[in-house]
Please model this.
Amino acid sequence: MGVTRLEIDLNALKHNHTYLKSKLAKNVKMMAVVKAFGYGSDACEVALFLEELGVDYFAVAYANEGEVLRKAGIQAPILVLHPQPDNFHTIIEQCLEPSLYSPRVFKEFSAFAKAKQQQNYPVHLKFNTGLNRLGFWENDTEWILERLKETNAIKVASVFSHLAASEDAKEKTFTQNQITSFTKTAQILLKTLPYTPFLHQSNTSAIINYPEAQFDMVRTGIGLYGYGNTPEEDQNLRPVASLKSVISQIHKIEPGETVGYNRAYKASHYEKTATIPIGHADGISRAYGHGKGYITIHGKKAPIIGNVCMDMLMVNITDIDCKEGDDVIIFGEGVSAVDVSATIDSISYELLTAVSQRIKRVILR
Model:
């Protein structure tokens, strides 16, 4: 196509949804996590397609992400994982459902919902079982139950928690302790509440590794986008996003010549370099370069050399038969974001979600 673009393959998304759905017990619901622009892709296109496929719930990090989905036409329930009091008006205006994770947030949202004359507004109770990031503690249950008796402005739609290391076989005991802790806390609430909220704790890796912890619903993010957190599971999934660009110019340089800012790369012999119109403003970190990281041209790795620029990067193509105007692949379509990000001791999540919004999105149906 001759431009830098992020191709989003909805057929791959369908494949991943089908595969993950096949891992679920009967009647277990699926919550699709579409935060961070759909893990760097296109949250609206992804969510609209998943809604067609029958996904039960969506999850976003912040209220404004949920508002964007509503304006795009999403009708399914949307859980806001990390709401802030300043955004409560958006949550209610857009019929979003907040995670209440602390006494402060619980009290403030309950009061806000009452002031807005809400009745039984759906909220979700987040419990901390070991991640130590957000969440009530197990001994907060009595306080929560007392507060719920005092108001009809809110109603608990679900109780949930988050696993810290479900992809790590060495942390199996820790993960099982998290599951046990969550089960115990949930049972205390279910025994007292006059209705039955649904339960969810599993993320993508837990769907695969801990089928006993599916409860009423699972949450999947990275798996939907084609990554299963292990090489074995990656084989069962298909990357949804492929970041591609083009060779703008090819240079022939002599021994001793340098490339890029601060003369960070020095040629040791006669070499060929290619300039690619993508840089750190597009999400390709300056941690790449200096022999770390690569792009793929005609199936061959071209090492990133020198410093990554704001809008460009340079690669060594001495041993690659290519020409100006040829396509290149940064990740996707046979080039794993896991492998590329590993060259700078990072993870696929970071590379995927860093893709700049200025890069054109191309939807492949």
